[in-house]
Amino acid sequence: MPVVLVQGRTAHVSRCFDGLNAVGVLGRMFEKTELSAEFAEVFDGEVCMPPTWLNFKDLKKEYDVSVPARAAGYLSVLSFRSGPGEILEKMRELGSEAFAEYIEKRDAERRRLEEKLSGRAMQGKKKCVKTAKPQAANAESVDHADPVSEEYADNVGECEKTNDVVPQKFNVLSFEELSEQCRKKNADGFEDFLEGLKGRTEARIRSGETNYPQATIDMMTEVLDWSGLTEPVMVIGFAPPLYPAYHSDQMAGKEGVGSWQFRKIKKASEAAGCKVKKVHYFTGISDLSYCGTCGDMDFSGYAAETPLWGGGYQVDFEEIGKLNIPAVLMGPWGKDIHRRTERVNRKSLLVELPEILHTLIEDQA
């Protein structure tokens, strides 16, 4: 579950162009990833559902009339073959695009506002990006016949003064990269800080005060605070739990066992007068994810990008790979999972499935 933390730059709403709205940047990230077919993998005619966001919010602790400095959220990303590293790199690329696009939109709207208030066309002028440094008003660039306040002149006048392009700086970091910057600042101090932070966070999770994804946002926020970084930045990490893709046909040394199991299930089902359909992947949550590893999916970098890794959450992928227990997930016919109308077919649950299971058990005896 990728977690995205954005730090922009705060400003009073009356001087909003002095700031960089973290919600706006995160919103661009939402647009670029929500239901994006770019993430949807295909296997043997089946498509993996694209990402969807489960949480999205600013990180203000109380109400004020300023541009949000920080915002965060997390999204569900399913995959058939891609490992955490591949997903992180794709998120990083889209994060850079989201930052750049929001800055471009902000500056385009500022130029439109200049035209509107000054009454002068800005066509032909080069793009000028406002920097974080406070700028003095440029009296020569403001038409005093127009109702433009001195405050607004402070905000936009300097950009009319120069034709130089001043790019807005930002950065996109993984959680591990942010941590490395902290270690360069003070390795021992950061490790002591991180150890204490993990201990406090794990206690909050155990007490029910928080959950994995929210605790991950809190930890990433505190690490960003400790780093001392003040420039606009996006930090991407992972929140537990991780449910890797599982396919019984793709386990090393046990290739094809899943299909063999399905043929036995199909035979027993047809004898019970019930039709069954083979689906390669169940795109929900199943503990079968912890029964084996499949293909070349790489989990080596996941721990470093997961703030809670350690006492709060840990999975031994190497041992799981040694298990490699083939299985098939089967159950009664149902509809509308996680909706108010969620239901299961009574005959399928109480008559057909017990008979099929009984046949399968007897066959194993």
How is this structure best described in words?
This protein is an alpha+beta fold and 365 residues long. 41% of the residues lie in helices and 10% in strands. It has helices at 22-33, 84-118, 150-161, 175-206, 212-227, 257-271, 317-323, 346-364; strands at 2-7, 42-43, 46-47, 52-58, 70-76, 171-174, 233-238, 334-335, 343-344. The chain has a 5-stranded mixed β-sheet with strand order 4-5-1-7-6, with helices on both faces. Strands 2-3 form a two-stranded antiparallel ribbon. Helix 1 crosses helix 2, helix 4 packs across helix 5 (212-227) and helix 6 (257-271) crosses helix 8 (346-364). The radius of gyration is 27 Å and the shape is elongated. Residues 121-126, 128-150 and 157-165 have low confidence and may be disordered.
Sum up the structure in keywords.
five-stranded mixed beta sheet, 41% helix
Helix and strand arrangement:
Blueprint: E1 2-7, H1 22-33, E2 42-43, E3 46-47, E4 52-58, E5 70-76, H2 84-118, H3 150-161, E6 171-174, H4 175-206, H5 212-227, E7 233-238, H6 257-271, H7 317-323, E8 334-335, E9 343-344, H8 346-364
Parallel strand pairs: 6-7
Antiparallel strand pairs: 1-5, 1-7, 2-3, 4-5, 8-9
Average pLDDT, rounded to a whole number, is: 86
Give the helices and strands as they follow along the chain: EHEEEEHHEHHEHHEEH
What is the terminal separation in angstroms? 41 Å
Q: Report strand %.
A: 5-15%
| DSSP strand tally | 9
Structural class: alpha+beta
- Using only C-alpha atoms, the radius of gyration works out to 27 Å
Kindly report the oligomeric state of this protein.
single chain
Query: What can be said about the biggest beta sheet?
Result: 5 strands, mixed
Instruction: Give the helix proportion (percent range).
Output: 40-55%
Strand arrangement in the largest pleated sheet: 4-5-1-7-6
Poorly predicted segments: 121-126, 128-150, 157-165
Tally of helical segments? 8
Shape descriptor: elongated
